[in-house]
Design a protein that fits this description.
By secondary structure, the chain is mainly α. It has seven helices and four strands. The strands form two sheets. Strands 1-2 form a two-stranded antiparallel sheet. A hairpin with a 2-residue loop joins β1 and β2. The longest helix is centred in the N-terminal third of the chain and has 24 residues. The chain is globular.
C-alpha cells in the first residue's frame, strides 16, 4: 500500500518513513479523483485485512468502527449497525481538539461523508453522543439488548 501511495502521490506522501497525513489531506480533499484513488486503494486493503483478522477472532461479538460504513458498503459485512452521531459543531470542536487541524480542513473531510440523516435511515440503532456519561449508558443498554439477541 505504501508503494502504491507513493506512486500516486509522490515521495512527499511519506515524511521520515511515516505517512504525511497533512500533505495527503491537502491532496485528496481538494481533488475528487485523488480521493477516489486513495479510497479504492486503502479501503480494498482494509476489507481484505479485516476479513483475515475476523477469522482469527473467537469472541461472541466483534465491533467494526468506521466513519464511512455506508459510503463504502462495509455495512453488507456486518449483522447490525450502530450509528453514533453528534451535532456538526460538536464534532468539529472534538476533532480540532483531538487532531489539532483547522475547521476548514475538517469541513472538507466531512463534506465527503454522507449526511447523518441519510445514514440514520440505514442504521439499525443510533446513539447521540453529546456527553460521555449518557453515551456510556446508551452503549451499556445496547450491549444488554445484543446479549439477548
Amino acid at each position: 500500500v505504501k508503494n502504491q501511495i507513493i506512486s500516486i502521490f509522490g515521495p512527499q506522501s511519506f515524511k521520515n518513513k511515516k505517512l504525511n497525513t497533512e500533505f495527503l489531506q491537502n491532496e485528496i480533499f481538494n481533488c475528487s479523483d485523488k480521493l477516489k484513488k486513495i479510497n479504492e486503494l486503502v479501503h480494498n486493503q482494509v476489507k481484505i485485512n479485516f476479513k483475515k483478522w475476523l477469522k482469527l477472532q473467537s469472541s461472541k461479538y466483534v465491533l467494526k468502527e468506521t466513519a464511512i460504513l455506508f459510503e463504502h458498503k462495509y455495512d453488507i459485512d456486518v449483522d447490525l449497525t450502530v450509528l453514533i452521531i453528534a451535532p456538526l459543531k460538536v464534532r468539529i470542536e472534538r476533532i480540532i481538539k483531538r487532531d489539532n487541524i483547522s475547521k476548514n480542513k475538517i469541513e472538507k473531510i466531512i463534506s465527503n461523508q454522507w449526511d447523518d440523516k441519510k445514514k440514520l435511515h440505514l442504521s439499525d440503532y443510533f446513539i447521540e453522543n453529546l456527553n460521555k456519561s449518557n453515551t456510556v449508558k446508551k452503549v451499556e443498554t445496547l450491549i444488554k439488548i445484543f446479549s439477548i439477541i
